[in-house]
Amino acid sequence: MNSFILLSLFATVIVGKSPRLKFVVHEPSRFHFNKPENYISMYHQEGSDTLYLGGQAMVYVLTFTNRGVRDLQIAAASDQTAIDTCKAKAAPLELECDNFITVIQKVNDTIVVCGTNAGSPRCWMLVNDTVLTDVQGNGQIASASDISPPYPSQRSISLPADGSLYSAMSSVAGHAGSIRRTFGSQKLLKTENVWLLNPQFAGAAIIPSSQKFKEEIYFFFSEINKTARVDEEPYRARIGRICTWFYVISRWMKGASKPCWQTQWTTFMKARVMCGAGTTQQQYNNMKQAVVLTAQDKRAGVMYGLFSNAWGRTVICAYSIEDIDQAFSTSKLRGYSSPFIGTRPGMCVRKNSSVGGPNEIKNLGVIRYHPEIEDVIRPVGVAPLDLPTDDQITHTVADIVLAVNDEHYSVLYLGTDQGKILKVLHTSEGVFIISQYSLFRNEGPVLNMAIDSQKGHLYVGTAMEVQRLQLADCGRYGDTCRECILSRDPYCGWDRARRKCIAIPPGYNVTTGALIQNLDHSNSSVCGEAAALKQRRTSPREVVVQSNTSIFLPCPVRSFHATYRWEKDNCIKNYPCLFSGDFCVLGPVVDTPLKEGVFRCMATEDGFKVEVISFRLVNNGRLLAASLASTLGLSILLAVSTLWLH
Ligand SMILES: *[C@@H]1O[C@H](CO)[C@@H](O)[C@H](O)[C@H]1NC(C)=O
Ligand SMILES: *[C@@H]1O[C@H](CO)[C@@H](O)[C@H](O)[C@H]1NC(C)=O
Ligand SMILES: *[C@@H]1O[C@H](CO)[C@@H](O)[C@H](O)[C@H]1NC(C)=O
Ligand SMILES: *[C@@H]1O[C@H](CO)[C@@H](O)[C@H](O)[C@H]1NC(C)=O
Ligand SMILES: *[C@@H]1O[C@H](CO)[C@@H](O)[C@H](O)[C@H]1NC(C)=O
Ligand SMILES: *[C@@H]1O[C@H](CO)[C@@H](O)[C@H](O)[C@H]1NC(C)=O
Ligand SMILES: *[C@@H]1O[C@H](CO)[C@@H](O)[C@H](O)[C@H]1NC(C)=O
């Protein structure tokens, strides 16, 4: 009995953390690489069916339909001289001596493609989706090595904004790392070296504003203190912020041998980001990736950071954009205590303010030496999101969904190192793991994802293949109101009239009340089906048993948040699963008389008990040889489970 109590305790502990549903999906819209692509860059424009992928010496232009994928592969080989030089120079990097495409971005209607080109980066323009040509244009173009790193293991981030391309290059030995404006109609710029301490970039996002001059770009990164003692944490997670619409101060360089002007960023600021419970030792300091969800032209939203600790465990922390904005606007600057004269240093100001006035020059000096704010950015809900601990998260994207109650809900898609996707609803109450998708035949890690909210698609890439999924995958939730509501999927609602779980149509009129949902709690009382559920019986499948045989009865597990039990002869006795996973299996244990009678498998969730499957065991009285018996037991199990699944 003791072991049983333990088991049920364990079950209640993990229930919230596990995905409620598990789907094995092999969509026809998938593409296989001819060779493994261990570094993939992705570009996708919302509303299109085309996905651009950068691989090793190759650009893939993939056009997805619901039936399959049309692919165009454009070779982008390295110069032979670059390969020879690379191989002669660095033996440990020999595998990286090729042209890995690191950047594909659309800047002002031009698709810019840059690659490592075996240690001496090169850029192209992709013309007509078919041809790579040399970069040309009226705008400013930085050297390719400011846009793409020389080797794929050096992580870089690129973000098009306001007709320009912003490129962030992580630090490696002998290279400090920087943020630059590299391409477009505006002046080229670079951050000061003292502002970033061995940065490893994790992401970048535009923070919109109704006033154009207040538009900002956030860069997410980790800094590494290489002189930290062994007992000290070398990583510090950071948010860096710049204004896109700022005036440029050019100044005379002192001590230069000939006159030259230096152009500077006047608005760089950075803040420390914490992820962990309170001030405990359980801190996750290495930010690996970050995504931002914001409403159109509003400075509100949420940022999700993917962090790891020294043991490689990954977690997600969520931050409020308002909190971050507040900190940048009001916090003291580290190491600077004098009062500010005029505009606060580092703020985004209108371009027509007095450029180069004495206060601005002074503020420039303040930001140059004191870019860090004192306030620390802490996650909403204080701790990391309560997610399964056995999955290592490798990539994440997020979406914002307008639900039937006219409110917005955040949905996270987490790619794991096993090639799975977790679909997670995040509300003010916490997280709910809607489902887990197993997509790939080869269980490699998810390397990259792109989301298209407009068309409702998720693109997922591993080193072997790329697949497209529907965000509103409502048909999988079953054909009852209760199953639809308990899915807690904000993309899906129960259509009262058609009695179907459907995707919320674009432009749905919330006042009609045609669709129902309940996203805040797992509670399907809106369906009003309680009485009907109690009555529902399945017709028992007959199984003829040889006496003296071990028999196993399988019950397919649909909801991993439900409790499964077996009952005999209308609930006179009930039994736990002998073992469970995808099936709750009833088998012979000491006091389980698996003989004649009707066995029903019952699933309890949200306070309701529902019958899933039932078997009538009929004894045919004959004895069997012991060795054969166990084989037969197993074959019954398998026979019945295939019967169920088809
Ligand atoms: C792109 O397409 C246009 C129109 O079909 C054609 O005139 C042009 O030559 C093409 N450019 C390249 C580089 O192929
Ligand atoms: C986009 O390119 C065109 C033509 O090259 C140029 O006139 C325009 O100013 C650019 N727009 C931006 C926002 O840079
Ligand atoms: C790096 O760690 C060392 C040792 O604790 C410390 O003295 C130094 O100030 C740290 N550097 C920075 C930039 O925090
Ligand atoms: C300059 O800024 C002021 C507000 O500071 C604004 O009223 C004015 O319209 C701006 N002028 C131009 C030309 O943008
Ligand atoms: C929504 O439906 C209500 C009545 O059901 C109607 O009065 C209203 O005009 C509709 N709104 C829109 C935007 O169609
Ligand atoms: C579900 O919601 C209804 C009405 O809001 C409430 O009466 C009921 O107790 C809830 N059920 C559970 C299991 O929380
Ligand atoms: C079958 O029953 C006989 C005697 O009733 C027993 O000795 C034997 O171990 C049983 N075999 C199995 C597989 O239970």
Annotated CATH topology of the largest domain: Methylamine Dehydrogenase, Chain H
- CATH class of the largest domain, named Mainly Beta
- For this entry, what is the oligomeric state of its chains? single chain
The radius of gyration over CA amounts to 29 Å
Ligand set: 2-acetamido-2-deoxy-beta-D-glucopyranose
Question: Residue-averaged pLDDT, rounded?
Answer: 84
* Number of E-state strands: 43
Main β-sheet, spatial strand arrangement: 1-29-28-27-26
Please describe the structure with a list of short key phrases separated by commas or semicolons.
646 residues; mainly beta; Methylamine Dehydrogenase, Chain H; ligand-binding face of the semaphorins, domain 2; five-stranded mixed sheet; five-stranded antiparallel sheet; 7 helices; disordered N terminus; disordered C terminus; binds 2-acetamido-2-deoxy-beta-D-glucopyranose
Description:
- A hairpin with a 2-residue loop joins strand 12 and strand 13.
- The N terminus and C terminus are likely disordered.
- The strands form 11 sheets. Strands 1-29-28-27-26 form a 5-stranded mixed sheet, with no helix packed on it. Strands 11, 12, 13, 14 and 15 form a 5-stranded antiparallel sheet that branches.
- It is globular.
- It folds into 4 domains: 122 residues, no CATH class; 211 residues, Methylamine Dehydrogenase, Chain H; 57 residues, ligand-binding face of the semaphorins, domain 2 (2-Layer Sandwich); 111 residues, Immunoglobulin-like.
- The protein contains 7 helices and 43 strands.
- With 646 residues, it is mostly beta strands.
- The structure holds 2-acetamido-2-deoxy-beta-D-glucopyranose (7 copies).
- The site of one 2-acetamido-2-deoxy-beta-D-glucopyranose has 4 residues, from strand 10.
- One 2-acetamido-2-deoxy-beta-D-glucopyranose binds next to loops.
